[in-house]
Input
Amino acid sequence: MRSRRALAGAAAGLAAGLALLAAAAAPRHQQPATQADDEGRRVYDKWCAGCHGEDGRGDGPGAGPVLPKPRDFTRALYQVRTTATGEIPTDADIRHVVDEGMPGTSMPAWKTTLSGGEREAVVRYLKSFSSAFATAPTALRFGRNPGGGRAAVDSGGALYRRIECWKCHGEAGRGDGRSAPTLKDDFGNPIRATDLTQNWTFNGGASVEDIYRVLRTGLDGTPMPSFSDLIEGNIITDDDLWRVATYVRSLSPEEPPRVRDVVSAARIEGSLPAGPDDSAWARADGYYFPLVGQVIVKPRWFAPTVSGVWVQALHNGQALALRVTWHDPSQSPDTSWNVWRGRITRSMTSDDSVPADTTSPLPDRLAVQFPARVPRGMERPYFLMGSAEQPVYLWQWESEPRAAAEGLARGVGQFEPLAGAADTLASAAVYDHGEWRVQLVRALATADSANQLQFVPGRAIPMAIFAWDGSNGETGTRMSVGSWVAIYLGEPARAGTYLWPLLAMLSTGGLGLVVIVRAQRSAGSSKQPSDTADSEAV
Amino acid sequence: MSGWRRASAKIAFGAWVVAAGCGKGGESGGAEGGAAAAATAFPVDTTTAATITGRIAFTGTKPAMQRIDMSEEATCAQKHPDGAFTESVVVNDDGTLRNVFIYVKSGLPANLTFPVPSAPVEIDQDGCVYLPHVFGIQVGQTLSIRNSDGLLHNIKAVPTTNRPFNISQPMNMTTARTFASSEIMVPLQCNVHSWMSAFVGVLPHPYFSVSGADGAFRIGRLPPGTYEIEAWHERLGPQTQTVTVGASETKDVAFTFRGS
Amino acid sequence: MSEPTPGARVRFPRLSPAELRAALRHPFWQAVALLVGSYVLFKFGVRYLPPLLGMKSAPVPASVLTQFMVTALVGILIYVSDSEDRWRHFKEPIHAGLVDADKKWIRGTLLVLVPLTVAFMTYERVRPSLEAGAQLRSIHPAPPGTITFRGKTMALAGLENPLRQQGNLADQLVEGRRVYYENCVFCHGDRFDGLGHYGHAFNPAPLSFTDPGTIAQLTESFVFWRIAKGGRGLPSEGTPWNSAMPAWEDFLTEDEIWSVIIFLYEQTGWHPRTWGEEGGADAQP
Output
């Protein structure tokens, strides 16, 4: 550099050129020390800056419409760590999040997109956003899971109640604790108390070890505190904390729910379940369907509450019963959530032309959508509540006043109740610790076949589900949406189901026998006849 | 369950013994409170030291105190038979303003370094409020964090220059933290009880005070000189004044905050 | 004929190298080996071999596998019936299996197993199915000649991205990135693979731009049309209109769409197809 500068001093034209070069290479926030830092910046600018911002402040263009918000790296606050609360993370901690992403948020896993070297470089680059990384972090020493099976789950459950995890996470762990509506992160954005029954959305990971680590370290920048001081103060033991983690893990299923295309409504004899908590539902298959924010028509909605529904269905040849179960931490309308509605409105970008209403009471709502008639071929109405040309037939249930109505929709928010269908759809609902269970029953055949779908067994009938959480300010197009799936009403076994395989088997077997016999006859005519007799016995 | 009996026994034994008798709130500023520990090489000649005193006046309409709904925590509600009120603006009966943090912002000789008092500063979570609501601490001095409510609090520091912490205290217990660098002010909050709020001023010297029930403050043991004094209030903002004190002089300084 | 009868080998599965070589010269066993070999190749080879060489691959769908196997079978039959001699050799073990007294158990087993398999396959086809039915749709339907974009008529044929001729690329990328992260990232993802955090709820799944079958195959005017009109703007080949792709003309200006198109090609490294003969060379330096 020094010799180059000397040259530049000698030749004025060259000096001007060098000055231009220097201006082009001027760093935005810090002088990159090595080539590896240049690599880190290149990777960061290309893949990370869209959400986290070019200067690492978590203010990229993607930050407005997502919740939780992208991390501001200049504060050096990292949620997923192996270090004590408030400490900076180790390099391996940052690398882990870059590799695996943060489930339940918009942060994806980068291990399939970026090379190991690129990820290593970006970790170094992230650290350059804060001077806190001048010191070296110390990872906490974690004990080993003592195990203990069912007993560990039980004592972990007792601890969960004793150390009052339920105040935020709820008694059943569904994120519906009393403090849940008031929770905010260190940047003032509203933040959900994690629904502990859906471990596939835990941003620090789904395993007992991951949960234990979060209990020890807390999730910095969020309301989740560290429990390490309880162990250091000999108030609870390390094993106790492992048992809490074991209990929390036990609240979720072994595997995340598998998403299937078709709800099978088994045919039963006799009467349909009396209500959503009828024991008959415990024996019916459940189908999980993910829902996401409505981002197709204005105003869009980027912070939906309901992330999925479980659907069960039974029919008895006369009527169809549907039970839809979903998690919603509030039984709307509930004024204690108005503080939440206000924060959501402030922290999310909106393309609504009018300011969001944060106080008027809104109910929770569920819509089950079908085509108006069983379609021929593949054609179906537009999945998002139909269109002017092709309406959809809807069951719409509301929490307040608690009732369900049938109607037609010609586009989002265009629900028109069917006047003549006041009593053909029966509904019953239970709200239980952050969970709605709603049963809807309708006769397969009704009088108004022009508007009401006539259910027929043995056909895959399109169905879609939408949900609204009033306490999240959801109404109109601010909703959770899903795609068309299908419901299939089982029918009594038809004779053909067994007849055709039998016929196929007999004819194949017969043909084989004929071939053998013919071959042996023709061979036998030139050899001894005993051979034929032998094989005919086969 | 056996783990629980063991744990309660340990609490009864008092695993953490905290220096008791620290003045709660009131006007016991760091300069006065730290006097006992001053024996270890306090770098100022106390025989010629100056003192700044004063009162924080409040003008305008006295804001109505907002009642805190503690119905969800019966234990805490019982500790406030007359109800609990938010402390964001507390005007005393005599018209003075409470909970103003007054400190020496600049003017101290650069070569002075002050010993870290060995006595900790205590903050208590009692009746689902922080006691005290506004206080000061020296860099490196122990902050003793007590939970006297026996129910879940998390105490979270949300600093901008210091490192944060977020500690779960689900039962009667005491734990400790320190701050590594000066910062005006570090907010403390509890996410379980969204109304709980406190502010701590972290300084490298003991020249700070908080206005109490009579709106008065006192900063003593100052070397003679010219100082920038700042009065900080969480809602009504900071105010500064420049004050010159001579040897053994006591000077009265008045601050007036205006309500809306 | 030097080969021993094939039946003997069936009964004694341990083969000496000489016997194995002899068997591989026999047309019947060659045919069997070829058939098994092609099945393994189509079923597993196509999926697992290219990744060993660092290339992307995907499993062969069942219907395509059947087609491949029929083709292979026809080829094998042509080969074995090619000369009289080979054809006679080919038929020998079959005939022996049908006739020879010592292979009674082989034909007995086949006579039971084959009809049972056929019955099972028939049952699989006729039993009540929980499949929603195939959703055949054309992913890249033919574009119309002209579209109306916010009241302005645009001819798609020959239409180039006007931003490529004006301004500088860096500014357009900044703008394109803003548009992408404010609007597209939820479904199409940070990795441009269609796996955004909303993508899993939509069927059909959002397109992956990294897939060589999407924007790499298209002109920028086609991409403009699909962005502007969304899922509902698809022509009838696009039924059943399940695509959740919004009609972005309701949200974005013409320039915003052109800039996000530049951003997409830049980020994925693909070159758009051009209207000229030589594709793509002008898209990037």
